[in-house]
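User: Round two. Same drill as before: sequence, then structure, for each protein.

Assistant: Same drill it is. First protein:
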Amino acid sequence: MELSNADMGLTMTQVTDEDGVAIFEDLPAGTYDMTVLNEDTPILTETELDLEGMVDLAYDVLLELLATVIPDEVILNEGPDPVYDNVATLVAGDEVEIIGQNDDGSWLLVNYETEDGELLTGWLAAEDLEIMGNPESVAVADAPPTPTPGPTAVPATPAPVVVDYITFYYRSNPSEILGTFPVKTFNANELYNKMLLVRNSLNTMNANLGGARNGDAASCQAYVNAYNTILNNGTFYDDVPGDWAGIHDAYIVAFIFALDRTRPAFLSCRDAGTVDNFNADLAVQTIGQTLAFFNPFVDAAAAKLP
């Protein structure tokens, strides 16, 4: 802390003790400029003091230690760990006052005033703050007890279990096996996700046929990957409820169609890195017909889920 009086040509500096107190002795009467200095922030505050007579001055330096939020969003927690409950969400540029820290200084206890004037107190990670000053002078604060974990949720329905296998053949060549796939106990959510996988993969295949037709290696690889995604994720279900039976049947039809007349383009891309016009047109036609048939059933499945 520095006291100065230009008229008297007097400047005095004292270092605050560990309690933040600076003591100046035998000061003559007058008006002094008082400047609080900090090694990290050259000037923290300035003010004027009027002193009468020869006095000793003990000045207790109690300054706010401020900081601003750096990330786009951070969570203000009730304690110094993400496991604690959330108090609020702060955004980049929000200003907080640091009032405490944990043992190693990695988390800081702060006050935050909302736009409505509500004062919130919580903990932020030190790395998420740009601190205006030296946080080492902040006292260590006690953390609240760690919250007790709640009971583990029990699934509403058991996980599907493989009960059998089914073999499908290519429609265009009934003597050739398309693949053998697991049959599981029925699960509506899993069936719906499988339907989405087929639809999304068909859209990916369709989007890359133009490039594959022109010999673009990346487009061919994307087509091959999407085809294999359908093939390698084939799963079907047993004991399907009556109100889901039609949806499940449509899923089987779409699965087989998605892998049948699109296969020549798949083989051409895989083996030659390009697709001829005939097989590209055949794949485009097949994908369009399959999606036109399949999409209403995907929507029907979505509508039946909770």
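Second protein:
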Amino acid sequence: MDSTLYSTSTSTPTLLTLPAELRLQIYSYVLGPSQPLLLSTYCGHNTWTSPPLSKTCSLLRNETSHLHFLNHEFIYDLRSPLDDG
């Protein structure tokens, strides 16, 4: 038997070798719904951070960044420290 005939059929698929449509479906399950994110200029920091999945490689960052913004509610606090005075 020719061993090269069987070597290509036994490769294990990875996330990056799946079709893009399937990867996007997986990302939507992984990222899922979340709590509203407060973006504040008042306190000097935000509660928002990039999802860990987007930090693994540039391809995943590019494919997941728009999903993160579509699936979250962003709350902007534009108060100034002078407003409390």
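The mean pLDDT is 73.

User: Perfect.
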